[in-house]
Design a protein that fits this description.
heterodimer, A: about 140 residues, alpha+beta, Thiol Ester Dehydrase, Chain A, 3 helices, 6 strands, B: about 150 residues, about 20% helix
Chain lengths: ~140, ~150
C-alpha cells in the first residue's frame, strides 16, 4: 500500500535563474542558441530580453520530481510544452520561477505528476507531466 | 513556403555515438542544481543497483539537439531556423542513462502540418546503447512561425 494518492502534493521548488545560470546550462546542455545569453540577438528577434532555455525550465521542473522520488531512475517519462518564455534580466536578482507538482493518477506503482511552473504570475510550461515510480516510504 | 509533408516518415542516418561520462553528468547536474548522490557518487549509484552514476531525466537533451539539427539543417526541407521555436518535448525512458553508455540516435520525421500560418514539425529520436538496446525515445515538436505571423 502506498500513501501516495491522487491529489498528493509534492514539496514545491523555487529557483532563481540568473544570466550566469543560463551560460552554465548552455555549456552543460550544448545549446548555444544566442537568444539565451545575448541581449542584442534576443531583442533583434522580437523577444523582450534574453530568455531561459525551455529545456532548462523543464529540467528544473523534473528536479521537483526527482527530489521527491529520490532516484532519477524512477522517472519513466516526462514531457512539457513551452508556452511562455522566462525572461532573465541582466541583474543579480535574476528571474524567480516557482514549481509545484500534484499527483493526478496512480496506476499500480506509477504516479502521474502534473507540474506547474510559474514566472511573474503566469505559467510558462503547459501539460508538464512526469510518470514516476512511487518512492518507498521512508 | 510551408514545409513539405512528404518528409513525414523519413529517417536520417544515426549520428556518431555519444559517450556518457561521469563528468558530463555532474556538469549537467551542477547546471540544474541537482544534488542527488546517484548522479555524482559511483558507490551510491552501485548501492542503488546501477552500474555507474545515472543521468537526470532531461539529460538526453544533449543528443536530442543533434537529432533536431540533423533534420532542420537538411537543405531539401528548407526550414527557416531563425523562425523556429521548440514547442514541446518528451522523453520516454526505456532504462536510466548510466555513465559509460555509448548512445547512438536515429532521427525520424514523425509529422508535419500547418496551422494558422505556422508549420509544426515532430522529430522523434530513437536512442539506443552500444548493444542496440533501446534507451530512450525523445520527441520534439518544433514550430516555424509563418512569415506573415
Amino acid at each position: 500500500m502506498s500513501a501516495v494518492d491522487v491529489g498528493y502534493e509534492l514539496p514545491p521548488l523555487r529557483v532563481t535563474v540568473t544570466r550566469a545560470d543560463l551560460v552554465r546550462y548552455a555549456g552543460a546542455s550544448l545549446d548555444f542558441n544566442p537568444i539565451h545569453w545575448n541581449e542584442r540577438v534576443a531583442t533583434s528577434v522580437g523577444l523582450p530580453n534574453v530568455i531561459a532555455h525551455g529545456m532548462f525550465t523543464m529540467a528544473l521542473a523534473n528536479r521537483l520530481v526527482t527530489e521527491w522520488a529520490g532516484d532519477a531512475g524512477n522517472v519513466l517519462e516526462c514531457s512539457a510544452r513551452f508556452t511562455r518564455p522566462v525572461v532573465v534580466p541582466d541583474d543579480d536578482q535574476g528571474a524567480l520561477v516557482e514549481f509545484t507538482g500534484k499527483v493526478t493518477a496512480v496506476a499500480d506503482t506509477v504516479a502521474t505528476v502534473a507540474i506547474t511552473a510559474t514566472f511573474e504570475g503566469k505559467t510558462v510550461l503547459g501539460k508538464a507531466v512526469a510518470q514516476v515510480r512511487i518512492p518507498n516510504p521512508r | 513556403m510551408p514545409l513539405d509533408p512528404s518528409f513525414v516518415g523519413r529517417s536520417y542516418s544515426p549520428a556518431a555515438a555519444f559517450e556518457v561520462t561521469r563528468g558530463k553528468i555532474s556538469e549537467f547536474c551542477d547546471a540544474i542544481g541537482d544534488t542527488s548522490p546517484l548522479s555524482r557518487d559511483p558507490e551510491a549509484a552501485r548501492a542503488a543497483g546501477y552500474r555507474d552514476v545515472i543521468a537526470p531525466p532531461t539529460f538526453l537533451t544533449i543528443v536530442n539537439l543533434g537529432a533536431i539539427e540533423a533534420i532542420i539543417s537538411d537543405p531539401e526541407l528548407g526550414l527557416d531556423y531563425s523562425r523556429m521555436v521548440h514547442g514541446l518535448q518528451s522523453f520516454t525512458h526505456h532504462r536510466p542513462v548510466v555513465a559509460g553508455d555509448e548512445l547512438a540516435l536515429t532521427p525520424h520525421v514523425d509529422d508535419i502540418f500547418a496551422r494558422a500560418g505556422n508549420d509544426f514539425l515532430t522529430v522523434r529520436a530513437e536512442i539506443a546503447d552500444a548493444a542496440g538496446e533501446p534507451v530512450c525515445t525523445a520527441k520534439a515538436q518544433l514550430v516555424v512561425r509563418g512569415a506573415e505571423a
